[in-house]
Specification:
Helix content: 40-55%
Structural class: alpha/beta
Largest sheet: 6 strands, mixed
Shape: globular
Strand order of the largest sheet: 1-4-3-2-5-6
Order of helices and strands: HHEHEEHHHEHHEHEHHHH
Number of strands: 6
């Protein structure tokens, strides 16, 4: 059983590790990315769709980077005219299950989508939402109720679809890949988009080509984002020790990846931990901070002003004032005690 799980982990790590020559799509906005800010990117609507807004389209939704401790989680949507859904994506360009497409293949497909004059560029549109590690953790660690990852994913999906609809795209069918119970997700989306036929299914990227294409957009954007964050972090490193760890890299960003866990251990600040690239809400990060010499900070509990009484603002009943500890107490005269009331 352990060997089987190890083999699965190895496959996931291989699939999620960015290739050395990953294509950098226009969805990489370096300023926001390195600042730890979440953002969305929408491709221009293809002329074939903007000229005829009655053209019925199909839209797929998928994500990348749900489980890693490093890097953003990216949601992608991909849309195109219904009549060419399978013929263009599956038959001609072989969009398939994300486990079948290697990082190099999906990088080439994404480059084709983004290259003007290609059939994919002229016929299809896409969008991505980069959910930063900082914002994911901030939501999950809210003191007044967690904004869990499923809720964040749901909101991001809705925002992306609404963004595409706002551009005038006539979406008639939506296909969504999901990890949780499909019927719950589908019911929620159907209530928000009642005029659109919605199908939510597990392994949807192997069933519907538009979902596979959305997966490619999401994965390549995450690959490029992970590389951009890593190189920016590498440039900040100046010591010989840091340079040694930089050469090794942080791999896929998954906790089970030895390169990732090694990088986290070698680059942990005892007070601040890591930078915007790390999801502090993950147990991997918490365990390292608590078990490897991280500085424990005790935050004082703020007093609730609503619980204070009016008499708390008066001195004690003795009326005695110590001028050494409260030199302004008699500045405007002798204080009044509660006895006068």
């Amino acid at each position: 059983m352990q060997d089987s799980q190890s083999e699965v982990d190895s496959q996931v790590i291989a699939q999620e590790t960015p290739p050395n020559d990953v294509f950098t799509p226009p969805s990489i906005q370096s300023h926001d990315l390195l600042a730890g800010q979440s953002y969305a990117h929408y491709s221009p609507v293809p002329d074939v769709l903007s000229r005829d807004t009655t053209t019925e389209c199909v839209l797929g939704v998928d994500e990348a980077g749900r489980g890693p401790v490093l890097g953003p989680m990216v949601y992608g949507v991909f849309y195109l005219p219904l009549p060419v859904h399978r013929s263009l994506l599956a038959d001609k360009h072989h969009f398939d299950d994300s486990k079948v497409l290697t990082p190099q293949v999906r990088s080439r497909l994404m480059q084709h989508v983004c290259t003007p004059s290609t059939d994919l560029h002229e016929t299809c549109g896409w969008a991505t939402s980069v959910m930063s590690a900082r914002d994911i953790s901030a939501g999950m660690m809210k003191p007044a109720g967690s904004y869990n990852l499923n809720a964040q994913a749901m909101d991001t999906t809705v925002e992306l679809i609404m963004g595409v609809l706002a551009k005038g795209v006539n979406v008639k069918e939506i296909y969504v890949d999901t990890i949780g119970p499909p019927h719950v997700y589908q019911t929620k989306l159907a209530r928000i988009f009642p005029t659109i036929a919605i199908t939510v299914a597990k392994k949807a990227d192997s069933l519907y080509p538009c979902v596979s294409a959305a997966s490619v957009c999401a994965k390549v954007t995450r690959d490029a984002a992970l590389e951009a964050c890593y190189h920016a972090r590498a440039q900040q490193s100046s010591t010989a020790e840091a340079e040694g760890s930089v050469q090794e890299g942080w791999g896929s960003g998954y906790p089970s990846d030895a390169r990732c866990s090694s990088w986290l251990k070698n680059n942990m600040d005892p007070v601040f931990g890591w930078g915007n690239e790390c999801r502090f809400s993950w147990s991997t990060a918490k365990d390292l901070l608590e078990g490897r010499g991280g500085v424990k900070v005790d935050w004082p509990v703020e007093e609730d002003e609503d619980e204070r009484r009016v008499t708390d603002f008066f001195p004690s009943t003795t009326g005695e004032v110590n001028p050494q500890t409260d030199e302004l107490a008699t500045w405007f005269g002798t204080p009044v005690t509660t006895d006068v009331f």
